[in-house]
Description:
Elements: H1 2-9, H2 17-33, E1 35-44, E2 56-62, E3 67-69, E4 86-94, E5 99-106, E6 114-121, E7 128-131, E8 148-152, E9 157-165, E10 178-184, E11 187-190, E12 207-215, E13 221-228, E14 236-243, E15 249-252, E16 269-273
Antiparallel strand pairs: 1-4, 1-6, 2-3, 2-5, 5-8, 6-7, 9-12, 9-14, 10-11, 10-13, 13-16, 14-15
Amino acid sequence: QWYQRRVAITAGDSRTPSTMLALTTLLVQLACASSVKYIINVKTADLTDSGTDSDIYIKIKGTNGQSVWASVLAEDGRNDFDSRTVDDFIRNAADVGEIACITMETGGSDAFLFDWVSVYSHTHSTNRYFYNTHNTWLSRDSDEGSRSVELCEQGQTKYYISMQTSTRSDAGSDNIYLKMRITGDQGQTITGFVDKIDYDEFEKGRYDTFAFRSLKDVGEVNCLELFAYGSDAWHFDFVTVQPDNGKAAIFMNTSGRYMSYDSDEGLSYMKMCN
């Protein structure tokens, strides 16, 4: 710590012990005053081999331009970063103000794919979500991924996305691994994977609703793009996109096509516009 280095430098100072004690106390108080508690949640993706045993680090950047590395994200006696799990961490670090961006970095070559990270501090309690929109794998092995990835908050709008899986006998999917890009008259925004922990979504005939926070306000929604990364084909009737500050847009599966990463079963990409 910087205050420890300062105390070590002044250890041979000719000032009285009481003066040195007061200085040390002040420096410690200043260091503690500038340190805040961060609550960090990391959702590991559900694709094959998404989990990792490598050390994972996070850097938090604030709107004031300052940034700080939190310590390694690991808890003793706990197996972190298993597929389709959310791991929570509490770390003390310097206050960067409102949180704007994060950098996730790996310390090893065991490739890691996370879906999203959420962060807030006790001085800025709004939970910020950062989605791994381009499915960047982390690995020190350049053949498997990138050493680090920086993600910034897309916005502060919450979207509710609802979808009706059709009633065809084989309409449901166990691993469609779906993401969406929402386009409106004010831009675009991209979701994380459309799923819930401990919930069987995309079953035949089911109407599912998912919430995504910290997305960009795109204005009036007019197009929706679907990206399938799983090969268990899925068939749907319609998808509804509802921003918390606007009207809902409904997109019908007028093509009647299935979605699947396997081209023999369906489409890995579909775009629908109103």
